Amino acid sequence: MEIGNKIRALRQKKGLSIEQLSQATELSTGAISQIERNLVGLSVESLWRIAQALGVPIGYFFDEAGGGVVVRKNERRKISLPSSNLVYELLSPDMNRQIEFLLVRLAPGECTSQEKIRHAGEECGLVLKGQLIVRWGDQSFELEEGDSIYFASNIPHRYINPGQEESVSVWAMTPPSF
Q1: CA 3 to each of CA 10, 19, 47, 97, 102: distance values in angstroms, whole numbers, following the listed order
Q2: 119 falls within a domain
């Protein structure tokens, strides 16, 4: 099932109109309608807003992986959206844990959207390869290979790759958001 179909099904199950979801997400009713019909790409920021408004983690909209203890590198659940240059790979076996462990691959440049996201909890990241700028609130932190960062996730934030190569980092987030 495509993401838009899952959004519509969950919205209807919760008894919400498109207008109500629009108000809760600050997305237009037209955008919600087009997203539900899979007519437009969906940014990470928009999916975060929709997931929060519907009371589910982002991972709800993607197929669940196994559920064992070991996650093989070729079996990781990947989350990517067409309008984003980010790919999230779930390193944790499932979403039913106290902490979420992610590998984040970020192509050079910025996402098409300039929006920052925020959610409950905390994050800690380590840059394994390349460069990464973390915009957190009104601050900006430039990280290189081997640098790490920790911050409260309820402050609006976003990632940017200022380099010419892919940025690869590992993140721990609590509580799980995907």
Answers
A1: 11, 19, 9, 23, 21
A2: yes
- Whether the full predicted model's pTM is greater than 0.70, yes or no, is no
- Rounded to an integer, what distance in angstroms lies between the CA atom of residue 123 and that of residue 104? 13
The verdict on residue 128 lying in a domain is: yes
Q: Which domain holds residue 112?
A: 73-174
Q: Are 165 and 89 contained in the same domain?
A: yes
Residues 103 and 156 in one domain: yes
Asked if 131 and 105 sit in the same domain, the reply is: yes
The per-residue pLDDT for range 105-117, each reduced to its tens digit, is: 999 987 656 678 8
The pLDDT tens digits of the residues spanning 125-178 come to 999 999 999 999 999 999 999 999 999 999 999 899 999 999 999 999 988 776
> Over the stretch 119-136, which tens digit does the pLDDT of each residue have?
889 999 999 999 999 999
